[in-house]
């Protein structure tokens, strides 16, 4: 197979070989469901493979982990809905413990702003940030993967945190 589809398919296969276990670990941590992590990780790779313009993706590893995170979140939501269905109707005598709609909206806005802050980072800094905070890699492993020293990894992480803090302190658009 030649052309963009073949190239993107090869890239997905390479990503699968090199990142499958990490994606499964991230999903298992996020969902608390290690039994489903393998299936959910495969879904993440399949979603990437189905992208019509996959060759245009500048950071396929970062996108893979964003997709995996969203799949894990969807899984958690579905599991929570299932638990609520199984629990039956709520008892009017018990106080509500769910967050208010305002609290959920504020949390979602904060997460969107944080994603925006991460997306605004320079590419190398963003890669270091994601490898450290999403994949949980130590400085040395990040340095080896990106061809930089652990001290440079530390520098990029410091820059990322400073830029994210600055971004988050700005007044959100209304």
Describe the overall structure.
- α2 crosses α3 (60-87) and α6 (139-146) packs across α7 (150-169).
- The longest helix has 29 residues, at 3-31.
- The chain has helices spanning 3-31, 34-49, 60-87, 101-119, 123-133, 139-146, 150-169.
- The protein is mainly alpha-helical.
- The chain starts with a helix and ends in a 5-residue tail after the last helix.
- 75% of the residues lie in helices and 0% in strands.
User: How many individual helices?
Assistant: 7
Estimate what percentage of residues fall within beta strands: under 5%
- Tell me about the largest β-sheet: none
Instruction: Determine the mean pLDDT.
Output: 85
Based on CA atoms alone, the radius of gyration comes out at: 19 Å
Counting helices, strands and paired strands, the structural category is mainly alpha
Ends apart, CA distance between termini: 49 Å
Strand tally: 0
Order of helices and strands: HHHHHHH
Quick recap of the structure?
It contains 7 helices and no strands. The chain is an all-alpha fold.
């Amino acid at each position: 197979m030649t052309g963009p589809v073949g190239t993107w398919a090869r890239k997905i296969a390479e990503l699968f070989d090199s990142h499958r276990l990490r994606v499964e670990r991230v999903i298992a941590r996020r969902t608390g469901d290690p039994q489903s992590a393998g299936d959910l990780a495969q879904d993440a790779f399949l979603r990437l493979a189905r992208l019509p313009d996959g060759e245009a993706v500048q950071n396929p590893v970062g996108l893979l982990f964003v997709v995996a995170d969203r799949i894990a979140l969807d899984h958690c939501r579905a599991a929570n809905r299932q638990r609520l269905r199984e629990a039956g109707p709520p008892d009017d005598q018990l106080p509500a413990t769910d967050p208010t709609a305002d609290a959920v909206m504020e949390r979602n806005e904060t997460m969107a702003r944080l994603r925006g802050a991460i997306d605004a980072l320079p590419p190398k800094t963003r890669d270091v940030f994601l490898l450290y905070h999403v994949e949980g890699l130590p400085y040395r492993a990040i340095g080896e993967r990106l061809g930089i020293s652990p001290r440079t990894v530390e520098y990029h992480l410091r820059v990322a945190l400073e830029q994210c803090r600055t971004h988050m302190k700005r007044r959100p658009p209304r």
